[in-house]
Design a protein that fits this description.
single chain; Rossmann fold; nine-stranded mixed beta sheet; 2 domains
Length: 451
């Protein structure tokens, strides 16, 4: 007797019906729910269309989905799509139950996957010469992959845009603080050079390993939260929460990071750590995602959700080269990285939130006599140089040639600024305390506001 294929038509339709009724719930389930979790090929095509429309910021409804699916060259007949959409719209939409429905169809899809893989792959594994890693990769690829959308081109008549633009100018005029329009980094020289981190901007902080990229990013996250009261999402693909909190603790308490890691404190240091942690707990609005296997699409789903629920001011990704690449048959690494970079730029624009990505530089700079990094050192990472609005390069000469003059000194080189000048900002690196400092601290800026 043949085994019955496990699936639930009711759950699949209920999920899609709920998304049509309340499109914002898509961002609650989009990270975990993949197209191939749907048993029905038509409902699978409908969900793929929903994902693409969400990436394009196009309204999600039966008409837009029908057109999106029907325009696919491998799509079912239009009449079949319409009939299925009618059944979906007739299904009960229950937003409060959608997570349960998603869990169930994921569970059922795993059962189907095991059934289908068992017969197809067992013979391959019996071959002693088989590349088992390749077979496993193929098995997971069959689970489906998340595809993003492309933005729609919209022409804006200049005369129609004048009123909206003037409103933005008025908002800038009323919100400007110390020459900073966007989100402050807390480093006054950088903020004055950039005018702050503008909403929708794609910002790169690039450096060779051990220059302090992660520390600088955490300092910016902390300063952003302190100065704006807004929320920062920090995606860490390299360090876990414990390592991140060690750096926060050292920075907040001015206790050596080595002592923090070892737990070796004097009574005074322990009190400072307690005070620093209380301040972080009560005043810092920073969300940490320390999953080591995240794709750009995962970042997009989580960011959209927090944009809806929080006053999201800044997104930081540490770091770009560790993001999980989308599976694209025939695409090389450079092409995949280029596609990922483009998706991040689109995400920043769609959310109107600055996104900072940390990026490794090529080894080319270390082969030169003058090891100061240049934009060309970014080129092996695809489209980052072209897509970015701002490129900051962190450089510490003492890493290569320590002297008394360059001790604890760091340069933040503004190698690219799409709408402003380039140049170099000087910082001091307090490595023991996991922090960079400039002429004015975040507290100094607040004091200037009070005056």
């Amino acid at each position: 007797m043949a085994a019955q294929v496990p699936f639930s038509e009711e759950y699949e339709r209920a999920i899609l019906s709920t998304i049509f009724a309340k499109p914002e719930v898509y961002y609650r389930v989009g990270v975990s729910l993949l197209p191939n979790h749907f048993y029905s090929s038509i409902r699978r095509s409908i969900y793929v269309a929903i994902k693409e429309l969400a990436g394009e910021t196009v309204p999600i409804d039966a008409i837009t989905v029908l057109e999106k699916v029907a325009n696919n060259e491998n799509a079912p007949q239009r009449e079949q799509i319409s009939a299925e959409l009618e059944k979906i719209l007739d299904s009960l939409a229950v937003p409060e139950s959608i997570e349960y429905y998603v869990e169930e169809i994921i569970r059922l899809s795993k059962h189907r996957w095991l059934f289908s893989c068992a017969d197809a792959k067992v013979q391959q594994f019996l071959d002693r010469d088989v590349d088992y890693q390749q077979v496993i990769a193929e098995m997971f690829a069959e689970m489906g992959n998340i595809t993003g959308g492309n933005t729609k081109v919209k022409v804006t008549n200049l005369s129609d845009y004048v009123v909206e633009y003037f409103e933005q100018l008025e908002a800038r005029k009323s919100n400007i603080r110390n020459g900073v329009i966007g989100v402050p980094t807390g480093f006054i020289d950088i903020d004055l050079s950039l005018g702050g981190l503008r909403g929708g901007n794609y910002i790169v902080i690039a450096a060779r390993p051990s220059m302090g990229k992660s520390t600088l990013a955490q300092n910016i996250a902390e300063n952003c939260s302190a100065l704006t009261g807004g929320y920062t999402l920090f995606f860490s693909l390299e360090s876990g929460k414990i390592d991140i909190m060690d750096r926060f603790a050292a920075c907040a308490s001015s206790v050596s990071s080595s002592k923090v890691r070892l737990g070796s404190f004097t009574p005074n240091e322990w009190q400072r750590i307690n005070d620093g942690m209380n301040k972080l707990r009560n005043e810092m609005r920073i969300g940490i995602v320390d999953e080591f296997s995240l794709s750009v699409d995962d970042v997009r789903m989580i960011s959209h959700l927090y944009k809806q629920e929080c006053d999201l001011k800044l997104i930081i990704i540490d770091y770009f080269q560790l993001l999980k690449e989308d599976f694209k048959k025939g695409a090389n690494r450079t092409e995949r990285l280029s596609d990922m970079s483009r998706k991040i730029k689109i995400l920043a624009r769609n959310l109107d939130v600055p996104i900072i990505i940390l990026s490794q530089l090529s080894r080319e700079c270390e082969r030169r006599t003058d090891k100061t990094p240049m934009l060309s050192d970014l080129r092996e990472t695809g489209q980052i140089e072209n897509d970015s609005d701002v490129v900051l390069m962190l450089y510490r000469e003492e890493f290569y040639s320590p002297t008394v003059e360059n001790a604890n000194m760091a340069e933040v080189i503004i190698a690219k600024q799409r709408n402003g000048p380039t140049g170099t900002c000087k910082l001091r690196f307090q490595k023991d305390f996991s922090r960079f400092v400039t002429r004015f601290s975040a507290a100094d800026i607040e004091k200037e506001d009070d005056n």
